[in-house]
Design brief:
The protein is of the alpha/beta class. It has a single domain, classed as Rossmann fold (3-Layer(aba) Sandwich), CATH 3.40.50. Helices cover 19% and strands 26% of the residues. The protein has a six-stranded parallel β-sheet with strand order 5-2-6-7-1-8, sandwiched between helices. The radius of gyration is 17 Å and the shape is globular.
Length: 190
């Protein structure tokens, strides 16, 4: 039998946390909450968002409730690795705007002993899983599914309803383009 003593406790292990859900469900708000707590604990925190997302700020991650934290804009997931050598905690917002390389980047960071917290949409406007979130969910140690409130009926919402005509999978927008809907009230625009 192995006794638990401080020198046998694992050290320098990392992990991946994924915060996934529909728009307006509080994903970025939860990401910011976790990152602020890490900063209070005096941990070295680096925060990233894709360059494509300039809805509320060109330099900060910003929740729909107007909470914000400074971040580094990156064009690709691989760029994240250039800034994280000293980081203990890595926050990544709007993960659905990155390609599948993000999965390898998150794995590498966690394998280096870092806490990696990723937030993003788990479904697109049609209700189809939105890569790379499903793959991140499969490898994450911790998963949080956030729900919004359906603007039509008030039930828990896990879908993003597109309100404007566009067949593009990626269409950056906020309340002018999207609403939270439940399974019953969501429909795929023609």
């Amino acid at each position: 039998m192995i006794e638990h003593s401080p020198h046998l406790m694992p050290k320098n292990i990392g992990w991946i946390e994924v915060i996934a859900g529909c728009m307006f469900s509080g994903k970025t708000e939860e990401l910011i909450r976790r990152l602020r707590r890490a900063k209070i604990a005096k941990q070295n925190v680096k925060i990233f968002k894709p360059r494509i997302d300039v809805r509320y700020s060109t330099s900060d991650i910003v929740s729909h409730s107007e909470q914000s934290m400074p971040s580094i804009l990156v064009e690709s997931a691989k760029e994240i690795l250039e800034y994280t050598s000293e980081a203990q905690v890595v926050g990544i917002d709007e993960a659905q705007f990155f390609d599948m390389t993000l999965v390898d980047v998150c794995n590498q960071l966690a394998n280096e002993g870092k806490r990696v917290i990723v937030a993003g949409l788990d479904q697109d406007y049609r209700g189809i899983p939105f890569e790379p979130i499903p793959q991140l969910l499969a490898i994450a140690e911790y998963i949080t599914k956030t729900l919004a409130i359906c603007v039509v009926c008030g039930n828990p919402a896990d879908r993003t309803q597109r309100k404007v005509l566009s067949s593009e999978r990626v269409l950056v927008g906020a309340t002018e383009s999207y609403e939270a809907r439940c399974r019953k009230c969501h429909y795929i625009p023609e």
